[in-house]
Amino acid sequence: MEAIPARARVYVAGVALCALGCLLPLTTTHTPWWAAVLLAALYAAGEQVAARWWFAGTFYPVLLAGAFLLPPSAAALVAVPGALLAPAGQRPRWTRRIWRAAQLAVAVWATARVHWALGGREAVGAGDLPGALLPAGGAVLAFCAVLTALDGGMSALAERSPVRRAWRGLFARSLAPIAVHGLAGLMMAVLWCSPYGPVAALLVLLPMCVSWWVFAQYHRERAAHQATIRALVQAVDIKDGYTRGHSERVGQASMMIARELGMDDERIEVLRFAGILHDVGKLGVPTRLLRKNGPLTPEERRVIELHPEYGHEMVRGISFLGEARAAVLHHHERLDGSGYPYGLAGSQIPESARVVAVADAFDAMTSNRCYSRARPVSVALGELEKCAGSHFDPRMVTALARAVDQYGWHPAVTADDAAAPPARPPVSSAPGAHR
């Protein structure tokens, strides 16, 4: 989001004012400045390294160690320089930097307050590691809760996410990694107060840095995967302008079906890839056939019906796609065996292909094509339900209907209405009969 809405800017300003309020006691309380400055410098350096590794937030252990060692206002200060100096990515950069600094300062301040209230300061100072676990656990919960509360508010305001969805799952997803960071931060704090001092505390970061580096390589690999898929989809969109955006929407619909069926996150991602790449074989089909306004001859239809096989050949060597490759090959098969390219029926059709078939037909009906105009979502769902059991798997149709009913469907227009040619009847009456 390059342009941040006015209400989100007001929200950022409000959180920044809260952060300033958290820092004000620095002028009136005794602050161990040397420790605060050392931790702030370590966090700032860590954020710069993390940016090079493509993994933000890796140095939470330093922030949490500050919350376990320092007064709340000094602990909040540790986060500010690193957040303000870290790469911001999209514009407006300074608004994003201020948001990140304010969010972390408020969260660390709350963490330190909870830790002190639970008696954690004394346990850490005495080197009582078992006794320090309970206060540290409460503090980590506070840190996670504040971060997710603020993130959810920003999502609701800046990205206009529905309020009921803005916070859903944020706390649960972030708790486990933050708990690991909290344990590392606690070990740093206990060693810091030991006779070995800060140098020993810094050694705690070494094994974590190795694991972060490995995780960063995983992120780099994922980014390469995404770039590969994006390049293929862009090539299809350029070749067949009428279906621009179709691939991404089929990926989204496939993901909605997979979630409704209760599939795990890894498989949901694979099915998203399957939906995005299902028509990549159109790169092997003559452009004139894809853009033809009139009816297709039997020979032209046979050429177009080769696109699943072309697509499968193109992606068969991409190992990370997994079962998505089967969906690319079989997404035009029908439950009654009347589909193509191999006329598979029933359970012979891979589950991933049955998911993508429903998503593909749904988006084809709700989008403008060179041979048909978009139908209302309710009509498209009705057509799918009529063909459930013959052309489409009823489970997939029901899952899509439930997901659309719960979250809605707002497809982008894939062709300019004013420029679209007059609609002609589809080649077949079946909702899946599209190019």
How is this structure best described in words?
It is a single chain. The two termini are 34 Å apart. 66% of the residues lie in helices and 0% in strands. The chain has 435 residues and is mainly α. It comes from Streptomyces curacoi. GO terms for molecular function: hydrolase activity. InterPro entries: Cyclic_di-GMP/3'3'-cGAMP_PDE, HD/PDEase_dom, HD_domain, HD_GYP_dom, HDIG_dom.
Task: Please outline the helices and strands.
Elements lengths: L5 H18 L9 H20 L7 H10 L2 H14 L7 H25 L2 H6 L3 H30 L4 H4 L3 H23 L4 H7 L1 H35 L6 H15 L4 H13 L9 H4 L7 H7 L2 H9 L8 H7 L20 H15 L11 H11 L6 H14 L28
Helix pairs in contact: 1-5, 1-7, 2-3, 2-4, 3-4, 3-5, 3-9, 4-5, 5-7, 7-9, 9-10, 12-13, 12-18, 12-20, 13-17, 16-17, 17-18, 18-19
Give me a quick take on this structure.
With 435 residues, the chain is mainly alpha-helical.
Classify the helix fraction into a percent range.
55-70%
Described by its quaternary structure, the protein is: single chain
Number of structurally distinct domains:
2
* Percentage of β-strand residues: under 5%
- Unreliable stretches (pLDDT < 50, length at least 5) are 412-430
Termini Cα gap:
34 Å
Tally of helical segments:
20
Sheet having the most strands: none
In angstroms, what is the radius of gyration?
27 Å
Number of strands: 0
- Written as H for each helix and E for each strand, in order along the chain, the element string is HHHHHHHHHHHHHHHHHHHH
Shape: elongated
What structural category do the secondary elements indicate?
Answer: mainly alpha
Mean pLDDT: 83
